[in-house]
Predict the 3D structure of the following.
Amino acid sequence: MAAEFHTVALFGANGQIGTSILQALVNCKQQSFQILAFIPPDTPSPKDHVDMSNAKKETSIDVKTVDLMSSSQSEMAGHLKGVDVIVSALNGKALESQRLIQDAGLDAGVKRIYPSEYGMHHVYTQADGSGWVHPMWNMKSNANESIVMHPAIFEGKMSYTLIGCGDYYNQDREPIWCPWTQPPSSLPDDKYTIHVIGDADTTADFTHLDDFAEFLVATLCHPEKSRNRRLNVVSDSISHSEIAKLLEKHTGKKVDVQNYSFQDQKKILDAPKSAPKELRDQSKEGGEGQSSFPVDFWFLVKGLQGAGRFRWPAGERHEQEFGFDPSNMRNFDWYIREKHGRGGGQSKA
């Protein structure tokens, strides 16, 4: 049976996640897509970063520059006329526009919406036993809830798909969060440093951006199977100690695993400015750090990984349901060998 979704409106198409989704849409072997790539004003076209060599001849990309913060529902509905599915890769303040996009999509007859989930949310237990959710996760949770609780969902006029994942491990722009992405020639003191909170031998879930994007596109190709579902995709389940061994094996460089205690985590969650200078995010006072993530968010996520909580339970991973072989996912061994390995690697693309 022919796939139901042919025209996709991708919001945030030139961001880190949006670019990966766009490339996966273009590379889809099962069907072709007509893609409306929405980007903010005064930002580069995603076409500049997309390889069309494997695209089906019917595949097309139409870039639309729209200021989401000032666009009206009627204007957005005009843009979405003829669209089958909305995929949001928005983040930050732009998430506030998702509900307007959904309302406009309903007016335009859009059948499905993918809110910008793409993560894993946790409640942190404080010293007094009460729970706390980081503002970044709370913002994302609220945005997701607004979409899935829309009256159109309950009335069956529109459906949704939420996709979660592990920690995105191939973010080249993050030398602290993802030190293994950095070339050996750039290393301070000629060694890698992996920062760990808690137990470095504890397993956590990680996801490669391309695996995530290809999984999302696979769910588009099976619209009934993915209808009104919360789905998760993981590329590798591995400990930081195992990652360190792979780095040493494939790069020949020493790897220093720098460990922080859960007491350190609590202290820094209570007072982020007390964090070591190199771990602070770039945007804060002085800009000393090397990460774009707030330091309290970093300590929260890494602490959850070190505590063994950053994992999807059995039954809440869906790679195989959509045709992915877990043994052929983009795992750390493949990634480090392919990116840095002295003997080269074998592509899984």
User: Anything to note?
Assistant: DSSP finds ten helices and 14 strands in the chain. The chain has two domains: 7-168+206-235+312-327, 179-203+238-306.
